[in-house]
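We now fix the convention by which a protein and its fold are recorded. The integers have meaning only within a learned vocabulary of local backbone shapes. A complete example follows; check for yourself that the lines match position by position.
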Amino acid sequence: MSLHFKHSTGLHSIKSVLSLGLIFILSCSGESESDNTTVDPTSSDPVMIEPTGDENYLNLDSDYIYDQSMLHTFELTLSEESLARIDGDPTAEQYVSGSLTFDGETVSPIGIRYKGSIGAFVGCVSGSDWSNPSGFKTCTKLSMKIKLNWLDSDDNFYGLKKLQFHSQNLDDSQMRDRLGYHLFREMDVPAPRSTHARLLINGVYTGLYALVEQIDGRFTRENFDDGSGNLYKEVWPLSEDGRALSESQYISALKTNEEDPQDSMLMKAFADELEQSSTDMDLKEVISKWMDIDEIMSYVVVDRMIQVDDGPFHWYCGDVCTNHNYYWYEDPTDHKLYLIPWDLDNSFENIEGDFNPVTSIADDWGEISANCLAFSYGAFGLRQRSAACDKLTAGWVLFEEEYEAKKREFLEGPFAQANIDALIDQWSAQIRPATDEADRKIPDAIGVSQWENALRSLKRSLSFARNQ
């Protein structure tokens, strides 16, 4: 390989049905990962704590935060006024100032806000229109983003500048993020690290979250030999009709080098060559030139085996057909492009059938329906287009031998039953006390018995996938 990278039943029922890819169809956009969000200028800052240089958070790296053998506890502290402000309108994603206490050390000031696309707020805000969420916070848990380099300081926290706490409100198993990203990484796909964490706000335990690594410039430097290149969010190399986009369209999707894009703009060159390829052989040659075939076949195998059906292989159709929930990284040294998975909330759930009427994909890998026209599918009759109608995806389908080799490797290694069951058992034992604590203390937390049933269901689904 040549990879270069080192208890509210009603609420849970509503969320399972709506599950939230539908929002993408309505808006054609997910949550912005940009931090150009509103800053509350009136919130009172906590007293600045001047570090002495001896603090662990300045001297240890992020491996400690994402240590899979540990269940960390984080505590956020903010004024009652600031908490009331973000609770009053979580969808505004407005940063307020506060502090973070971890392992007996306090970092201040930091930025604190709620985060998520429309789906993250279903059933959790007071507004009556779920497709246009508004109003005050009604759930104990909402996903949160913490900006540690608050006010554009150069400070970091265990080598990190942001923390993301995902509420897992759509995931009764509380395993999808952690397990999904783990499986990608086990197959040498660059993917965020994820573990679990307890979170307290002003001394009150709010529950168990998935702590998911931010994909940003620090992530690229951590995962690639040359991490200085361009990182893009949710821009596909080709348009729906197979044409390269304009350079400005790629630039607008940048998440690094926004002020000074790399001169190479590999994405644009890749797209131009894809558009110009006229035969299957040409297409394979272009893809082999610009991508690591082992890596992308590993990506496809993991994605399809765990049914990441709200990701790049689901082409939702409204006025246009498009996909979401991914990043691209272009390495300026090896001149390759890498696809990075993102937002695994809806993974695993459609393995045994079309459980989710929004995200389910009609076709198996490489299949085409409706002669590449948009068609209605699922209980809601939502429109989608076959992924293999996209020229790039169709090119990946051509690598049949490489795909089958990677599938065997996955089935015999990371996805083998003994490995998966041991991992789930280990992690569930780790988070059981926190899950039980939430069940006892938090009225709308998932019950332990409901969680245990979801874990059994997850294992059953994985066995089903393994044997198909």
